[in-house]
Design goal:
Number of helices: 4
Largest sheet: 8 strands, antiparallel
Shape: elongated
Radius of gyration: 23 Å
Helix content: under 10%
Number of domains: 2
Distance between the termini: 37 Å
Order of helices and strands: HEEEEEEEEEEEHEEEEEEHH
Strand content: 25-35%
Structural class: mainly beta
CATH topology of the largest domain: Jelly Rolls
């Protein structure tokens, strides 16, 4: 378990480690989906030390989300649930404030069901009931799902406004429910293209995809008495190049050499913003025109432009064009260091 030492630090069992810090829940915010009959909004109660929170209601899908973005930080901490029911506990990743009423919401849901159960929530849900399987899963939430869709991880045609698509079941806990009053340690590594989740030191998920940035959040559905505690963050190395994100001039593109030929503190590996000079902090048609003039040139040629050589192979070619196309009409980067586009 990569950050076991972080958890030990927070509960007073070890020594501090650079880059690790306890999560103060003071600035976190609760948000719930609209209540249905018998299932109220969540009630999140933060402890006096601001280091733990308990959700007290058996109600609708409810979140308690961070005041910082998920990308660029890894998260580790514990959750446990008392008895009284066997429903969903878990997390949300990439959640944005207001997503419970946002028709364009797009975030990841990590939920854990204690026991398999079939249920129909009825009005105002306009969708059929379904079966929630026991076990731990990762799903993608889009738009405005109904309670039935959260419950069964489905996209019902009766609700064209949103749904829930299950992406994966956990490696060892996919068919295993959580146990009452047991502290489970979760560790998350989350980037634009990869999600890894460890539970009690075991790698349960390693999912590749294209993910949205947003907030970390805790999640409950139809489960009361769930406590989240001892959470800590660490600066991530999202691209695995040996440089922590806050010191990496390309946070999500591996570039251990930190090559930056135009000196703007955004590495070539994520900086197709090459014209005009100074750069305008968006990748657009002037940049494409500058690349076209250097296309198929190599170092030493008349029209050579080292700024257009994004991968550092001394040739401007289709590999470089691919990167430009990925960021077209977007800002370059992101860079974790102060740069020309962050000033």
């Amino acid at each position: 378990m990569k950050y076991a030492f972080a958890l030990a630090t927070i509960v007073g069992l070890g020594s501090a480690q650079a880059g690790i810090g306890p999560v103060d829940l003071t600035g976190w915010t609760d948000e719930s989906y609209p209540a249905v009959s018998g299932f109220p909004a969540g009630n999140w109660v933060v402890a006096a030390d601001n280091l733990s929170v308990t959700q007290q209601n058996n109600g609708q899908p409810t979140m308690f989300f961070s005041d910082f973005d998920a990308f660029g930080t890894d998260l580790v901490g514990q959750l446990s649930s008392g008895g009284g029911d066997d429903d969903m506990i878990g997390f949300v990743l990439g959640f944005l404030p207001g997503d419970s009423s946002n028709p364009n919401a797009d975030y990841l849901l990590v939920d854990w069901k204690r026991g398999t159960q079939t249920f129909d929530f009825g009005a105002p849900s306009n969708t059929p009931g379904g079966t929630a399987d026991r076990g731990l899963a990762v799903s993608r939430v889009t738009g405005l799902p109904t309670a039935d869709e959260f419950w069964a991880h489905v996209n019902h045609p009766e609700n064209p406004d949103g749904g829930v698509e299950e992406l994966a079941r956990a490696a060892t806990l996919g068919d295993t429910g959580w146990s009452v009053s047991v502290d489970y340690t979760f560790e998350f590594e989350f980037s634009p293209t990869r999600l890894r989740i460890f539970v009690d030191g075991e790698l349960e998920f390693d999912i590749a995809g294209v993910f949205q940035n947003g907030r970390w959040g805790f999640y409950n559905f139809s489960q009361a008495g769930v406590t989240y505690s001892n959470f800590a963050t660490a600066v991530a190395d999202s691209d695995g190049d040996g440089l922590l994100d806050d010191a990496d001039n390309c946070q999500f593109a591996a570039n251990a050499d930190q090559r930056d030929t135009d000196g703007d503190n955004i590495g070539n590996a994520c900086d197709p913003d090459i014209a005009p000079v100074p750069n305008d902090c968006v990748v657009n048609f002037p940049d494409l025109d500058a690349m076209s003039q250097a296309f198929f040139t190599s170092a030493g040629d008349i029209n050579w432009n080292e700024d257009a050589d994004f991968n550092g192979d001394d040739t401007v070619n289709f590999l470089d064009l691919d990167l430009m196309s990925d960021l077209f009409f977007l800002p370059p980067g992101p860079s974790g260091v102060i740069n020309n586009c962050s000033i």
